[in-house]
Design brief:
The complex is a heterodimer. By secondary structure, chain A is of the alpha/beta class. Chain A contains 18 helices and 17 strands. Chain B is globular. The chains are: A alpha/beta, B alpha+beta. Bound molecules: adenosine-5'-triphosphate and magnesium ion.
């Protein structure tokens, strides 16, 4: 527009020059042209500076002024708009690149640019809010994941997560220890079935599949076995659950091998106790009857002249004597035989001589080896007992090596510590003499091993073995407060290990048995009927009267009614209802004359109460009771 | 020497800065650019642009009608 105006002004200028108007007129027109020319380039800085009041010229100059102002305003708007857009453009670009620290300016004089800035900022804030929420949720998920991981890692039992195809997906530290592989080696690489022994494979796969059809189709908890890196089989207790929304299962696994072993030991020891009691009774009665038979047979023999009949009666007496020997063996097993004369024996030298003594007996194709420490070891024991023990073990070893082999006799001083106690709860920690008899013979399977100490258990043909050898050994060793363990593998050989406690441990054991007797009344309190019976049988055997109670409540009632009669109470520590300690406290309240002893399954230290362990030998128990009853207040 | 030269001669303001803004995402941080223009308000516009976007003008040089502005991005 300015160009067009400029062109027409030039025409005007020419025609005016031809007329006779003044110089001012020309000057003004020149200025107007130059201002308009600048304006056409977008430059609004030029102004018409010469003043005029001539009608048409003034009109022209005024119009140019207005035009300049309008163009200026228009240009300014244009620039504001452009700068505003450039600025917002830059903010959006930064936001797009992830820089949320920027904000669009909201101060543009141009309404639309200002609104655009506000809009950008609102959008930015909303987006930031959204991101913040996402971050929080993410953190929550991470935390819960970490928490679960921590729980799984620190529960103290082995944990494994198994996928549908049996692949191991997750394991914790305990599982690494259990199977002997590291997390890295296991996860994603091994299948769960790699650790299942052959015989259980089908069952486990079945469980695995059934569980994925419906969780209740397979057992939630069951005992099984697993095979570790070394091929060792471990008894385990497995707990399985499905993980929601997945086909994965999670299993916790507890190694119960140790527990099982201890359980077996306990069962075995209970069985032996019961057998001891039973065979003791039978042998006792048997002995009485035999005394009659032998006595009368002897009388008959003396009275008879006829040599043939005399010979018959001799046979009766001989048979009777054999039967008496048998009964004696049984009594040894049940520890009812009087302890013979003990003396201090140099075991090192004894074994040396013993080895020489047996060499010719056991046959030429069996080599005898000795493993005896340099320092000599002595032990107080009845020599005839020692001989019975060793002869029985050596005879068995010889029988186990019909094709020859090696027999090793070992001797050692050992200190059994608390660690040993945890795996062998029936063996008290302390100093022991260990005697080992090892052969390289046929060995035993598990079933045989479990029964060898039973009286009359034998695998030998009729007439060859009585099955009383080891039960006699067992009885003798128990009599000294000792233990016998057997390690055997079919086809490889057998080791019998005998542990005899050192003297300070069993001072009280060698006591005149008569002194253990008594006629007082004793109350035995235990919720376990078997234990109750066991203790009362021992006490009754030694002359005591016994009352039994199966819990603390019953015990207190009995004491209430018989406080003059009862001299001593033997109370179990852990019972349902009132505890042993509480029971004793109540009994003491009723009468301060009644003595009390608390029995516990483990070694404990109860400051103000007398206490014993349940594994105590009968003699020790009787000795303790006698002492307490005889103690004057 | 400038990393890039943008010649906006013959373009009327505010086209030069609009073009500059649309080119801007291609620039690298710290780059030196040279913008040349001949519009009378070019100087004013380019100064406003630099100020709003926080860029530094290193040099400004008149060459006849043209103005050469050196900027650090
Ligand atoms: N060293 C051993 N190697 C393999 N088996 C053994 C060994 N010692 C004992 N046994 C097994 O234990 C069983 C019981 O042994 P035990 O000594 O009590 O009776 P026995 O030897 O059979 O008979 P007896 O000792 O009266 O002659 C044996 O029959 C045998 O099966
Ligand atoms: Mg035998």
């Amino acid at each position: 527009m300015a160009k067009y105006l400029c062109g027409s002004l030039l025409n005007l200028h020419c025609s005016i020059e031809n007329c006779q108007h003044g110089e001012d007129f020309i000057k003004i027109l020149h200025q107007c042209i130059s201002v308009l020319e600048s304006l056409s380039k977008g430059d609004t800085s030029q102004k018409v500076t010469i003043f005029t009041d001539k009608g048409c010229l003034k009109k022209l100059v005024d119009t140019i002024h207005r035009l300049t102002e309008e163009v200026e305003e228009f240009l300014n708007l244009n620039h504001e708009l452009a700068i505003g857009i450039c600025e917002h453009f830059d903010v959006l670009r930064k936001l797009q690149q992830g820089d949320y620290s920027v904000r669009a300016s909201e101060d543009s004089p141009v309404e639309i640019v200002k609104m655009l800035g506000q809009l950008i900022n609102k959008q930015r804030d909303r987006f930031l809010d959204y991101i913040e929420r996402l971050k929080e949720q993410h953190a929550e998920i991470v935390h819960s994941y970490e928490q679960q991981n921590a729980i799984l890692s620190s529960v103290g039992v082995a944990i494994v997560v198994v996928d549908e195809d049996m692949t191991i997906e997750f394991v914790n530290k305990e599982l690494e220890d259990l199977v002997g592989y590291s997390k890295k080696e296991l996860e994603g690489k091994f299948k769960w079935t790699d650790f299942v022994p052959e015989e259980l494979l089908n069952t486990m796969i079945e469980y695995h599949k059934l569980r994925r059809i419906s969780p209740h189709l397979a057992p939630r908890q069951y005992e099984a076995k697993i095979k570790d890196r070394e091929g060792k089989i471990k008894d385990v207790l497995i707990n399985v659950a499905m993980i929601p929304y997945t086909k994965k299962s999670i299993a916790s696994i507890i190694d119960i091998s140790e527990r099982k072993k201890i359980q077996e030991q306990l069962i075995h020891s209970h069985k032996m106790q019961a057998l001891g009691l039973l065979s003791g009774r039978v042998a006792h009665e048997f002995n009485n009857i035999l005394s009659g038979i032998l006595g009368f047979a002897n009388l008959i023999e003396e009275k008879i002249e006829d040599s043939l009949i005399k010979n018959y009666s001799r046979k009766i007496i001989e048979a009777g004597e054999r039967a008496r020997d048998l009964a004696k063996n049984l009594l040894t097993f049940s520890r009812k035989e009087a302890v013979g004369e003990s003396k201090k024996i140099n075991l090192s030298r004894y074994l040396l001589e013993f080895a020489e003594f047996i060499r010719p007996i056991i046959g030429r194709d069996i080599q005898v080896k000795l493993k005896i420490p340099e320092d000599e070891i002595s032990y107080r024991i009845d020599p005839s007992h020692l001989e019975v023990i060793l002869m029985n073990l050596v005879t068995n070893a010889r029988d186990a090596m019909p094709d020859g082999g090696t027999l090793t006799l070992g001797l050692k001083d050992v200190n059994l510590d608390m660690d040993y106690y945890y795996t062998h709860p029936l063996v008290k920690p302390g100093h022991y003499v260990a005697i080992c008899v090892t052969d390289t013979g046929i060995g035993m399977d598990k079933e045989t091993k479990e029964r060898i100490f039973e009286p009359f258990f034998t695998t030998k043909p009729k007439g060859k073995g009585t099955g009383l050898g080891l039960s006699t050994v067992f009885g003798l060793i128990k009599g000294y407060g000792g233990h016998i363990h057997v390690y055997s593998e079919p086809g490889k050989g057998t080791t019998f290990k005998i542990y005899l406690p050192h003297e300070e441990k069993r001072d009280t054991l060698i006591i005149d048995r008569k002194a253990l007797k008594g006629d007082e009344t004793i109350l035995v309190v235990d919720d376990d009927e078997q234990i109750r019976r066991y203790f009362s049988a021992i006490l009754k055997d030694f002359g005591y009267s016994v009352i039994e109670a199966s819990d603390g409540f019953e015990a207190v009632n009995i004491v209430e009614d018989n406080k003059e009669l009862i001299s001593l109470c033997l109370v179990d520590l852990v019972m349902p209802g009132i505890s042993g300690i509480e029971t004793v406290k109540q009994i003491r309240k009723i009468s301060d004359k009644i003595k009390t002893i608390i029995m516990s399954g483990h070694p404990i230290d109860l400051k103000e109460f007398e206490s014993i362990e349940k594994t105590i030998s009968a003699d020790e128990l009787l000795y303790k009771i006698r002492n307490m009853l005889d103690k004057k207040e | 020497m400038a990393d890039r030269v943008l010649d906006y001669c013959g373009l009327k303001c505010p086209y030069p800065i609009l073009k500059l803004s649309s080119q801007y995402p291609n620039f690298k941080e710290g780059e030196i650019i040279e913008v040349i223009g001949d519009c009378p308000t070019f100087e004013k516009d380019i100064k406003a642009w630099c100020q709003k976007l926080g860029k530094t003008i290193i040099n400004m040089e008149k060459q006849g009608d043209k103005l050469k502005v050196t900027i650090r991005i």
